Amino acid sequence: MNAVRPENAFANHSNTLLEIKNISVDYHAANGTVHALTDVSITLERGQILGLAGESGSGKSTLAYAITRLLRPPAEITEGQLLYYPRPRAEEDKGRLKGSSRATARVTSKSTTTEPVEAADAVDILQFSPAELREFRWNELSIVFQSAMNALNPVLNIGAQITDVLRTHRPEMGPDSRRQRAIELLRLVGIAPDRIRSYPHELSGGMRQRAIIAIALALSPELIIMDEPTTALDVVVQREILMEIMSLRERLNFSVIFITHDLSLLLEMADKTAIMYAGCIVEMATCRELHQQPRHPYSYGLLNSFPTLHGPRRRMTGIPGSPPDLRDIPPGCAFHPRCPMAFEACSIHLPTLLPSTSETPGQLVACHLYDPRFKTGDIPTNSDFATNYEVKYLAVQGTRKVR
Amino acid sequence: MSTENMGVDSPGIELNGTTVEGVETRETRGTREVGELPTTPAVLQAIHLRKYFPLRSIKLFGPQKVVHAVEDTSLALYPGRALALVGESGSGKTTMARLLALLYQPTAGTIAFRGKPVKASGGTALRAYRHHVQLIFQDPFSSLNPVHNVRYHLSRPLRLHGYARNTTEETEQILSLLNRVSLSPAEQFIQKFPHQLSGGQRQRVAIARALAARPEVLLADEPVSMLDVSIRLDVLNLLLRLKDEEQLALLFITHDIASARYFAEDTLVMYAGQTVEGGPSDEVIQRPRHPYTQLLISAAPDPDRLESRSLAPTLPAGNVGARQSRGEIPSLINPPTGCRFHPRCPHAMPVCSQRFPKRTELGGGHWTHCFLYGNGEANDASS
C-alpha cells in the first residue's frame, strides 16, 4: 500500500485531487436557517497542504464535515459538487470507486492501472451510496478530529484501535499482518512499538495525537483532513507533531486540509491558505503572499491578532466587533459592519472571489476595494489597514466610554 | 451575612481602612495609587514557595510518594505591572496561581501581601485576603454557574465583601462593572444566563466578577486560551486597560510566549515546577539564555520565519534544541535530579544532573538558573 505512486503515469493530467464546487450548507434550526457555508469553491492539488483559517463559526469545520459527508440533519448540503479525482491504484484496490455507477460526473468506466485518469473520471462525493461512501472513507480520505484527546476509545488499547480500521477495510489481512501494519504505523508516527498495548490514558497528549494520526494513515489515504489537530497541545509538542506531519507528507505524498484558527502556524506550513469569514472564503493565497501583503481587511485583522516575537511592541487592536449571526448575515459583504475600510458598495453588493491585482493573479480576494467597478484609486497597503483599524478601534472604545 | 468587619480583624493583613466602605469608588483608589512608580514595594510576593501533592500510596508502609509540582519559586507582583508566567502544561503555572490565591496550602515558603506573611487559616482571614487577590480561571465555560444569571454572579462578591447593602446599590454597581468590562448595553447583559453569552462575553463576566471584590492583585490563569482569536486581543486589551487604570498587579499565566511579550512587563519561565529564567519580557524573549526558553521560542509559530528562509513551507529545523529536545515534561513524581530540563537539554553537562544551578544574574534584571552562565561553584558557595 505504501508503494511509491507513479507520478509520471499521468503527467499529462492536471494534478487535481479534489474540487469543491459552490458548496452551500445550511443548518435548519428552530429559530431560523443558519447559512454555515455559502458558495465555497476550492481546488486542492495532490500533495498540497491547504490551510483553512478563520474564527469559530466561520464554517471551517462544517466544510470539513461536508467533504467527509459527516453532516447530519439538521445540516443540509443545499447545493454544490464535491468532485474527487481518484488515482488509479494497484490491482487489489481497483473497482472500489470505479465501480460506482451513481456518480453523475463520471463518464468512462474502463481504466487500467497505467491509463491516465481523465478529468471526466471525477466522482461526486455527494452522490455516493452508503456502501460507496464506506469504501471511500478512510481508503481515500481520513480525518483527524478536533478533540483528538477524546477521539480514542478509552477502553481499547491503541493497537486494537488501529487494527480495527484494518479489520473493517482490509478483511483479507490476517491478524498477524494487521499487527505488523499497526507496529509499522506506530513507528511511522514516532511511537515506540512496545506501546501498542497501551491504553489512551497511559499516553501523553502528544502521543495520543500521534496515535490518531497513525490511524488516519492506516490505509494510506490520498487526503487527510486535520481539524485543529494541535489546539490542545503545548507549543513544543505542537511543533513536533507538525514536523511529523510535514515529513510524513513528504514520504507518503498525501494531501492535507489543515484547519486551524492559528493563522501564524498555518503560514509556516501550508502551501495555500483560504481565509473564511461567515461561511465564505474571503481570501485565498499562498502563504508568502498572505504574509507580505494580505489583501482582505479581515485577513489583515486576523494576521494582526497574534502578538509577534520580534519587532517593536505596539498596541494591537484585533478586529472590533464580533462575528455575525449566521441566521442573519449582513447584506453585501458579511464583514462590512466590522470592516474599517468599508464604503457604500460594501453593504449593497456581494463581493466575489477575484484576483486582487495584476501583479498577484494567484491571490484571490473577495473585496470591493480591489474591484475597479466599485473602487478606483490606490490599492490599500498594510499601513492603510493599520491606520484604519486604529481609527475604528478608538471609535469603538470611545462609544463604550460614552455609554 | 455580615462581613464588614471580618477583614479588619484578620491577622497579618492590612486593609488600608478603605475597603469596607461601600461608597468607595474607583476614582478615589486611582488617585491613591496613581502616584506610585512600578518600583514601589511588591504588593504580593511568593518567597521560596513549594508545593508537593501527596499521592495515595498502594504500599501501606512504603515511602510516601509526592508530586513535586512547584519547587522553590519566588516572584513578586507590583501595582500597575504585569508578570507573565510562561511554560508548558505541567510546569506548575496553574499551581502557582492557586497557591497565590490560597486555594492550596503551600508545602513550604511564604506568601507575603504588602510585605506581611499571609496566614490563611479560617474563613475570615481567607475572605479578607480574597478581598485583595482575585483569580480568573481559564475556562469561562465552566467557571460560571449555568443556573445563575449574570446579576447573581456579580452580586455575590458585592454582597459578600459588603459593597452593596441593598438591591439599588447592587444594580448600580453591577451595571458599572459590566460597563467597565465593555459589556454594553449593560442593562441587557445583567439578566442573561451563561449559555446566552459567547466565550468572550463569559470571560468578561468572569473578569467583572473578579473586579467586583475591588482587588489589588488579579491572577489570570490563561484568561484567553479558550477564546477565539479575534476576541483574544480584545480581552487582553481590556485587562491591559484595567491594569493601567486601576493600577492592578497582574499575574498573567500563559503558554504563548508571544502574548507574554505583548502583555507583560516581566516574564518568568517555568519548567517542571522550577523557574528557569526571568526578567523584563523583551530581554527574556529577544535574548533567551536558558536552553528551555530557547526551545519554547523556537517552537512558537512565527510567520516572520517565512522571510528569513528561502524555502517557504519548510518548518525550521530549529536550533539544536528543537530536534533534540523531543519528549515531554518529565514525571513530577520522580523528577530528574538537578536541573529538571537536563534529559532534554542539548547542552547538558554532568553537573546538571547533580544539583540545581543557582540563580545567575545576567544584568538588567535578567536572570537564569543554568550552569551555562556563570560559575556553578561560585554560586553554590555564595548560598
What does this structure look like?
The complex is a heterodimer of chains A (403) and B (383). With 403 residues, chain A is of the alpha/beta class. In chain A, 29% of the residues lie in helices and 19% in strands. In chain A, helix 4 packs across helix 5, helix 5 packs across helix 6 (205-217) and helix 6 packs parallel to helix 7 (235-252). The termini of chain A are far apart. With 383 residues, chain B is of the alpha/beta class. Chain B contains 15 helices and twelve strands. In chain B, strand 7 (217-221), helix 9 and strand 8 (249-254) form a beta-alpha-beta unit. Chain B is globular. The N and C termini of chain B lie far apart (50 Å).
Outline of this structure?
The complex is a heterodimer of chains A (403) and B (383). With 403 residues, chain A is of the alpha/beta class. Chain A is 29% helix and 19% strand.
Helix vs. strand class of chain B: alpha/beta
Largest interface: A-B, 51 and 49 residues
Integer-rounded radius of gyration of chain B = 22 Å
Low-confidence stretches of chain A: 1-13, 90-119
Widest β-sheet, arrangement of strands of chain A: 6-7-8-3-9-10-12-11
Whole-angstrom Rg of chain A: 23 Å
The SSE order of chain A reads EEEHEEHEHHHHEHEHEEHHEEH
Largest sheet of chain A: 8 strands, mixed
Q: What does the oligomeric state look like here? A: heterodimer
Number of strands of chain A: 12
Report the principal-axis shape of chain A. globular
Give the distance, in angstroms, between the N- and C-terminal Cα atoms of chain B: 50 Å
Helix proportion range of chain B: 25-40%
Shape label of chain B: globular
The biggest sheet of chain B amounts to: 8 strands, mixed
Portion of residues within helices of chain A: 25-40%
Cα-to-Cα separation, first versus last residue of chain A: 65 Å
How many helices of chain B does DSSP assign? 15
Keywords for this structure?
heterodimer, A: alpha/beta, eight-stranded mixed beta sheet, four-stranded antiparallel beta sheet, B: alpha/beta, 15 helices, 34% helix, globular
